[in-house]
Description:
By secondary structure, this protein is α+β, with helices and mostly antiparallel strands.
Amino acid sequence: MTAQDLKTQEALALLGAPTGDDAPDPAAVARWTGAALPAETHAFLAARPALDQTDGHPEIVGLDFALGLPDVDAWLANLAKGLLGRFAATVHFGGLVPAASRLWYGDFTWLLLPLTEYAPGVAGTLYYDERELGHWGPTLRAWVQGELVRFFEAVDGAREGLDPEDRAGYRPDPDDLRDCFWLPGADTTAPPPDLALPEALEAPWAARAQHLMQTTARRWWLAEFVAGDVDRITLKDLPTPAEWDAAAALGPSTAYSEAMYWLLAHAALGNGPELAAAVAALADHPGEFVQALRAAAPTLVDRFAEPRA
C-alpha cells in the first residue's frame, strides 16, 4: 500500500462506519458507465460512509446515480423535472457520481466525484448546490481535510454554548451541528489530523475542474429541452461548431458523459445522420447505460419534434 493509499484510508476512517444506504455501489457504477473508476473514488464509494442529512431534498431523493436508467423513458421523465432534471443533467452529462449531501447555509449541496482521473488514482471533488457546479479539492483527502475544519468549528461553536461544567464531557450530536458533514470517526478532543497533499496536484486540478464546470453547465440546456422549456434556450446555449466537430470522434473508449450527451443531443435536435453515426460508433461501448440510450435514441427523434418546431 502506497503512502497515498494510507492517507486515503486514514481520511475514510474519519467518515464513520458504513451504512450500506444510498451511496452508489462502485462495481455497479463501473458497469453502468464503462468507466474504470479512479482509486480514491472507488475507495470512497466502497466505504459507504454515513454522511447524508436526515432531512432529504423534497425533489432529489438520496444519492441515486441511475435516476431511472436503464429505463430510458423513466430517465427522460426525471430529466424533465425541474431541479431533479438539472441534477440528472449534471450527473450524466458531466460524468459525476453523487457521493454525499448536506444542507449548506440553507441550500442542499452534493459532493460529486468525477468518473475519470486527472492524475494517477485521483479525480478531485466537486459540489452542486441547485444553482451552480463548483469544486472543493483536488483529492478526496483534501475534501475530508476541509470538512474536518468545518466539523471542528461547528463542534467548538456548540460547545461554547454550554455551561462551563458541561463543556469538558461534551460529545457532539448531529442534531446540534449545522453546515457541516457529520464525521463520527473524528476525535474532537484532539487537533485534526494532517491529510496534507502534494502541491503538484493544485495546478492540474484547477484546469480540470474549470473544464468540468464549464462543460457541464453548457449542457444544462438539454434538460430544459426535454422538459419542453425551449423558450429558455438561446443559440449561445447550444453546442458550438468546435463542439460539434469534437462529437464526431465518438467510439468505444469515449467518456460516459460524452456518449450520453451526444446521443441525446442528436436525437433531441433531429440530427439524423449524426445520430446514426453516433449509434454506430458506440456499438462496442462497455457502458450498460450508454447501450440503453443508444438503443432508444433513434426512436426519440420523433418524440422531440414538437419542441424542435
